[in-house]
Amino acid sequence: MSSDAEIATVTRVQPAKVSYGPVAVARVRAEIYSFFREKSSLVFTLIFPVFLLIIFGALFGNSSDVAPGVGYINYLVPGMIAAGLMTTSFQNLAITIPIERDSGLLKRLRGTPMPKSAYFLGKVILVLILSLISTILMLVVALIFYDVSLPATVTKWLVFLAVLLLGVAACTLVGIAFSSIPKTGRGAPAMVTPIALLLQFISGVFLPFTQLPDWLQTIGALFPLKWMAQGLRYVFLPDAAKAAEAAHSFELDRVFLLLGAWAVVGLVLCVLTFRWRTKTDG
């Protein structure tokens, strides 16, 4: 019969230590491969916003001035770039994560030695890549078909980079947090897509923000898309475009303040609400 001392010396199997770098790289590669393998995701995330820009540009062009010397298409391009960033971050994650949770992928990943942060790093890197591709596609179409000018000063390029990074950070974190709301993966697109479209209409993307009723302007100003579009209008439009802004100013200080605040709120909500399992799994 074994003594207590012998029992105490039984070797316990320790989980193998995982090197973070290779795991993180593998997770990023998996995210990129998974996205580009799904043609529907590729079309609706990257191609559809470009189609909208082309359609609205063909319908309205620069037939009317939004502000002195600023045609409709000039006003539309910054808003569509902002909408594309929201699509690659908020809309993309708020739809795909519930699907992954419903399929059991998140549950399986949580049971592996992979650090949890590697999963989120993969999502963030994917969003950054998609945001860059989306922005380049928009700019190429705008430059070729609508003679839109690129920023002419270093300051405007720096503001462009800051708005892009802050906006994508805010929308990414909010998208991850929102992913816990849909009850099923199948129901996520039906819940998220209308919200994304509504935000575009009330945030000054498809039509000048000041043409909205005051109460819709108030609601639109609560969300990051409005401030992303406004910051990008500073980048791509001349000073005369201030006349089409509610405050007759691009309010860059408020742009950065609100986007930063949404990033903080999104991070807090992610920590408090993110779920690796479906509600039926407990």
TrEMBL record:
Segments spanning the bilayer are 42-60, 72-99, 120-145, 157-178, 190-209, 255-274
Question: What are its GO cellular component terms?
Answer: ATP-binding cassette (ABC) transporter complex
This protein's major location comes to membrane
Source superkingdom: Bacteria
Q: Pfam families given for it?
A: ABC2_membrane (PF01061)
Arranged from A to Z, the UniProt key words for this protein are: Antibiotic resistance, Cell membrane, Membrane, Transmembrane, Transmembrane helix, Transport
Q: Does the keyword Transmembrane apply?
A: yes
Domain called ABC transmembrane type-2: residue spans:
40-277
Q: What is this protein called?
A: Transport permease protein
Q: From which source organism is this entry? A: Antricoccus suffuscus
